[in-house]
Predict the 3D structure of the following.
Amino acid sequence: MKYYILFGPPGAGKGTQAAALAEKYRLRHISTGALLRKEISAGSELGLKAKALIEAGSLVPDEVVEGMIESEFDSVKDVDGFLLDGFPRTLAQAEALDGILSRKGEEVTATLSIMIPDEIIFERIAHRAAIEGRADDADPDTIRNRIDTYHRQTEPLVDYYRKAGKYREADGTGSIEEVRERIFSLMEKV
Ligand code: AMP
C-alpha cells in the first residue's frame, strides 16, 4: 500500500487537488477536516466537542484525529493506497502515524507539499467561503488563528519529512490546472 501525505497551509488547495490525485492513482482520499465536519453535521458527541475548536481555528486533540485515521485505514480495502489531507498536523500526529503504519509493516511513501505565501491564503479562503459556506472560513480572526496554528504546529513537519527523505514540494500559486500538473509531476518522481 502507498501512503501519501498532501501537505500545505489552509487554503493551499489540498482538497481540490486530492480529488484528481486520488482518481488517477487509485487512492482513498482521507480528509480529517471533512470527517470532523461530518461529525458536526451528524450532531455526534465528537462533533459537538470539535465544533468550538474548529470554529476558533484551533486544532482538535491529536488522539481524536489519530483514531479517525486508524479506523479509515482499517475499513478501506479496494485501493492502491491512501492520500492523507490535513493529517498529520502536529509532530505528535506524525509520530503516531509512523507508529500506526509500522505496526502494519508499512511506512509513509511521500509527502507532497503545496506551498503558497500567507498573502494568498487569505484570498483563497475568502473565495472558498463564498462557495462552500464553511463556518471556519467566514471569520478573519479564525483564519488568522489557522494560519498561526499552521506556522507554529504544522510547519515543523517539513523538516521532519525532509530529514526522512520523504518531502517533495510544489508551488501552489497559479491556476488549479497548473498546480495539478506540478503535483502530478512530483508523483512521477516519487
Ligand atoms: P481542514 O478541512 O483540513 O482545513 O480542517 C478544518 C479544521 O478541522 C482545522 O482547522 C482543525 O480545527 C480541524 N482539523 C482537521 N484536521 C486536523 C488534524 N489533523 N488535527 C487537528 N485538528 C484538525
